[in-house]
Amino acid sequence: MTTATARETRGFQTEVRQLLKLMIHSLYSNKEIFLRELISNASDAADKLRFESLENPDLLSDDPDLAIGITSDKDARTLTIADNGIGMSREELIQNLGTIARSGTAEFLQQMTGDQQHDARLIGQFGVGFYSAFIVADKVIVESRRAGLAAGEGVRWESDGAGEFTVETIERAERGTSVTLHLKEAEAEFCEPLRIETLIRKYSDHIAFPVSLAAGDGEDEDRVVNEATALWTRSRNDIDDDEYREFYKHLSHDFADPLIWSHNRVEGKREYTSLLYVPSNAPFDLWNREAPRGLKLYVQRVFIMDDAEQFLPLYLRFIKGVVDSSDLPLNVSRELLQQSPELGAMRSAMTRRVLDMLAKLARNSADDYAKFWGEFGQVIKEGVVEDHANKDKIAPLLRFATTHSGADRQDQSLDDYVGRCIEGQDSIYFILADNPATALSSPHIEQLTDKGIEVLLLTDRIDPWLVDGLQEYAGKALVDAARGGLELPGGDGKLTQDTLDDEHKPLLKKVKKVLKDRVEAVHVSSRLVSSPACVVTGENELSPQLRRVLEASGQALPDSKPILEVNVSHPLLERLSAETDDGRFDALAHIVLDHALLAEGSQLDDPAAYVQRMNSLLLELDSTAGTG
């Protein structure tokens, strides 16, 4: 018998109300997953109680056998999922079921588009399984008592999902939580024992706690329906692919299948089991480096913590999975993990395992790897910078857009590039730009492409750090095509920069005098074919792209002037060289530099002066045409 007190009505957090409306629309075609989500929550509650009982064994003493029970009532059209796990206090229940207490909620909701498939994937990533109950129910009642609290401190929560919920204190003899769904008339199928059993076997067979179905007609006792063995503890030979996929969905709350997984048991000096998954889609908060991440940690099959980030480096933050150690202490904390001598070896081994798994995906399924790279490629690039020890494993995984395909797809590997190098080419050439179109049309690569030399087109914000961290591949140095002193394969070694400049010293000297406040030097270019000029960066200077990124982040940088290279065989430079009017020469010299800066994606320091010069030039041309 229960006695209700302190009843109050509260409104859902705004984000919850939005989410409920979106969820019912987006997930209806996959509505049966509500049972998977509620059983998964019950399993987590049992895991958490077992963990807390390590320090307080009395929490388990009155009912030590953790389990999940499911009861249905066809006449009342109700379905109840009950567990004897950790339970919730009144405050926890209000917090957990009335609000979404995680960062990025607003960003998540902004990404919802109304497209059912897209929104379903986002909802899965966000992990809001409890609310899926409202897809099939028009009323949900939750009763709970936290382990360790008195029977009089039970709590009941009730809502129709429309915008408000009631909460009241009740007398509840047993610890744990029960969730009762009052099913919509059209969803009565979920009261059928056979339907429930089928769904448990399909979605929750791997749950480590027994999931029992209440005795039905002609049955004497409740039946345990699932395997009730932690999936990662079983032999790989006994697990089929569908079981691995369903465990991933239980673990991650994702609705999409993983791209690949790796299940491995290590024995010997240290013993642990890992089951690691590569998701199909990037989470909405992938770029929040402070977002919760990591593996689910067990010690001797006892749940210890979610989001154990210490086992994988930050650039692999998208990996989902579990690690179960036989060596770590049961009372391990995040602080103790950092000090554990076992952690370093486990982290190194699991990092290599993930990289090997990605290499296998690249070898065996080009389409799946292309999908992976589209979702996680920029994060993998972080690894070159952050994980020097594994740089040689990461480099073959990288994909780039190049002049070979002329497209903006990042689908070419460094091995592909090296295999297409021309005879005598001992460098891998790249160009940094703000977008693929600017990179592909860059004046800096004209001579390279004219000679049939492939160029990597690097347009991601991390690319300046990537090439600085990579530096070489397969014995070939990475060379920036926009740096001064570019040497081309097959060139005449005697043709130095001084030799090129000597014949045109008067022109170069005059241009440098005019542009002395804007450029460091003026040289004859060996890299241009069809463009009149380009600006290049000195050997020890930051690239323009990196400067823009750093300045945008608020960093103060010392002033730097580019080097101007001119194509003396271009008609515009021939016209400039022949110009006798000093004013017109000055204007043309500035315009040549302005156009070179614009071609590389830079902004002009004084756009108004550029417009004025161009207007004067156009009026002069118009006047000349009218006179003619």
Supply Rg: 33 Å
What strand line-up does the widest sheet have? Answer: 1-6-5-4-7-3-2-8-9
DSSP helical segment count: 23
Could you describe the largest sheet, including whether it forms a barrel? Answer: 9 strands, mixed
> Quick check: average pLDDT?
87
How would the global form be characterised? elongated
Ends apart, CA distance between termini: 106 Å
Question: What is the percentage of strand-forming residues?
Answer: 15-25%
Helix content: 25-40%
Name the structural class. Answer: alpha+beta
pLDDT < 50 runs, ≥5 residues: 101-105, 122-127
Number of strands: 22
If you had to describe this structure to a student in words, what would you say it looks like?
- By secondary structure, the protein is α+β, with helices and mostly antiparallel strands.
- It is 38% helix and 19% strand.
- A 9-stranded mixed sheet has the order 1-6-5-4-7-3-2-8-9. Strands 10-11-14-12-13 form a 5-stranded mixed sheet, sandwiched between helices.
Q: Brief description of this entry?
A:
By secondary structure, this protein is α+β, with helices and mostly antiparallel strands. The protein is 38% helix and 19% strand.
